[in-house]
Amino acid sequence: MQMLKEGEEADAEVTWEDQQNINSFSKLNARLDQIEEIYQEKKVPTLTAAWSRRFEDIAKTARFVPKQKEKEYLEDLESELELADEDELIKYRIGDAFVSLPLEECNERIASESAEISGELDKLSAKMEGIGKEMAKLKAILYGKFGKSINLER
Q: In sequence order, which residues have a C-beta less than 8 Å from that of residue 104 and are 6 or more positions away?
């Protein structure tokens, strides 16, 4: 038997309810990791967005780039397309093919894709916030009972 050092706490008995709280926290933590991963993927370019001729070289190599800044790319693309001639056809990626579309139609597609991505990011953000609040409640309960005997940090 060992003597406890000053500031250490004795092991508390783990009840069924405590174990359920620990399991819930673990599941929430795993779910939060999944949602954060999806959130990061939604922020990266997948090349489903329009690409002008200036971006064709990037488009060839970016197929394997993670999706982390798709919204930013769309915004950059919008500003780049402002410099294009109205009569000029823009190569727009749809699936695996590039289709030549008028500038106005490209701008409409970019705007709708930006709105869609923003909506998805907002939903994911709200989910992460909700899970974070639930995890904070469970942390308070579990740290209240077990103190330093339990580690719930990410």
A: 86
CB 145 within 8 A of CB 5: no
At 17, the pLDDT band (50, 70, 90 cuts) reads very high
Calpha distance 29→22 (Å, rounded) = 10
Per-residue pLDDT reduced to its tens digit, 18-70: 999 999 999 999 999 999 988 887 765 443 444 443 444 444 444 433 344 67
Q: Kindly report the length of the chain.
A: 154
The one-letter amino acid code at 12 reads A
Q: 122-148: buried (b, 16+ CB within 10 Å) or exposed (e) per residue?
A: eebeebbeebeeebeebeeebeebbee
Out of 14-18, 32-36, 71-75, 123-127, pick the least confident: 71-75
Evaluate whether 75 touches 114 at the Cβ level (below 8 Å).
yes
Q: Where is 81: in which H helix or E strand?
A: helix 70-81
Kindly report the backbone phi and psi dihedral angles of residue 44, in degrees, each rounded to the nearest multiple of 5, phi listed first. Answer: -110, 150
Report how far residue 93's alpha carbon sits from residue 77's, in angstroms, rounded to the nearest whole number. 13
Q: Which two tokens stand for residue 24?
A: 């819930």
- Give the model's pLDDT for residue 10: 56
